[in-house]
What does this fold into?
Amino acid sequence: DAKTTQPTSMDCAEGRAANLPCNHSTISGNEYVYWYRQIHSQGPQYIIHGLKNNETNEMASLIITEDRKSSTLILPHATLRDTAVYYCIVRGNTGGFKTIFGAGTRLFVKA
Amino acid sequence: GAVVSQHPSRVICKSGTSVKIECRSLDFQATTMFWYRQFPKQSLMLMATSNEGSKATYEQGVEKDKFLINHASLTLSTLTVTSAHPEDSSFYICSASGAGSNQPQHFGDGTRLSIL
It folds into this structure.
């Protein structure tokens, strides 16, 4: 079973920041938080990952709470092409580095 | 960035046929490769994990004799759906990663398999 909980769907206005929350209250010390997204009929795309520090790359920012029990993916200026299902995943050496997908959050970016 | 190539992108074949899907990591060595299946409007379901040179580890409920996985090199893994039937029709996706939990998985674009 997936170890994360995400809202089923969210809306965001184009040009605004999209903040996608994720709960992972049972995360272990050696597990990273990963975010992927899947645009319809394509393979998932890696976005960002982190262990305990906040991370930023050209696609997004990842904010992890100090207790590591939750995190937020931030798309700073959402575009229509960011409409996708976003998956938050915890992954570590427990279980052989497997990536187990939950239901994810369906983000709709509206003009 | 890291690229994973999956081939073919779409297959349509008759019931009883065996179908092979290839997954290649183009610009990095993949210590581990994963195979997923995705039905319409559902999330990805992990089928098996394979490490180069060793037997694949299948998830519960996945028939290893039905879904043959070979991971002969650090850049290639194959999934063969043997004696495919209409219920095997699905979207199959592979991914590859380097060693360690700090290495992201990179996914192929998937193979849409339709069994008539």
User: Anything to note?
Assistant: The longest strand of chain A covers residues 84-91.
